[in-house]
Amino acid sequence: MRSTMLRNIKFRKVAVVVFLTVLIWVWTDLALNETYSVSGAKIVLMESSPEIWISFDGERFTDINNIELQGPASKITNIKRKVENHSFSLLFPLDAEVEIADANRPLNVQDFLQKSAQLQDSGLVVETCLPSQIRVSVARLTERPLAVECHEESGAPLSVGSTVEPATVNVLVPDNWPPGDKARVVLTPSEIDQAKKIPIRKKAYILLADGQTRESSTAVQIRIPPEEERLKRFTDITATIGICLSENLVGRYDVELVNRTSGLMDLIAIRATNEARAKYEGQDKPRMTLYIYDRDEAYGQDVQGREVQYNFPEDLVRKGEIFLDQTPATARFRLIPIPSAENP
User: Fold this and answer.
1) DSSP string, 92-135
2) Which of 82, 147, 321, 338 has the most CB atoms around it within 10 Å of its CB?
3) Which pTM value belongs to this model?
């Protein structure tokens, strides 16, 4: 019995020593608070209801720099390791509809970070951060009728003619939405080909400053007429020509067009819309241009040949609304030296 009592006393002593040792370790860890600075963090806005547009001055993200964390050394070491291993997310999602009850009240960034999922149970304290406050813009959107415009995937207006029904749709927009800005429908190349066969339906949308979109409440029907319906062939375009000389040749040579009356100045055949033809005929530029280069001087007065350039309006060419429907004309010309005052 005596030996049993001695064993119990020894066990209690060991237990007390272990307890005191652990207590000293914990106390030492708590006493040795460290700080750790985290940079590169961002607050990102979560999706809001369609009727509200929430942003940081037109952006969905805002940078938070120099987040000073303080806590026990072991917990600082743990968070430091996670940051270095990229297992600690530096994106802090903000549900502004919950956090920002009053649109005029700025967000206290320090409190927000402390309550975040990343730091709430970390045992660390957010001592400071920059900026300390952020103003979140909260705008209520109102429905407004907007004209619809078709675009290619590149963002450029559709380069072929299209009809949209209905021509206007209702879209939620900010109060300061520019009156002339349109809702857009973006078509892929395959959708463009399909719309030339049968009409397709898509919803139009607007693009807000931070990249968020708001779609129309109803879809529109888009039809693109086939090429033969859209463009007509015109063969009665009168030819006019301009001659463009290199600066080195101006005043030294005249250009004689050898075939002016035998093919060069014949009527021009094009395929175009009525509007494109009218613009081509009404422009200040001549309808054709012959370019003369410095190298042409080497041929002396021999007859040379070169295709003329047709001055179709670039925007109409890009949209596929006008093109040449004949073999390009070739100008046959020669350079005639202009006598100088010293050597007539």
Assistant:
1) EEE-HHHH-SSTTSPEEHHHHHHHSTTTTTSS-EEEEEESSEEP
2) 321
3) 0.54
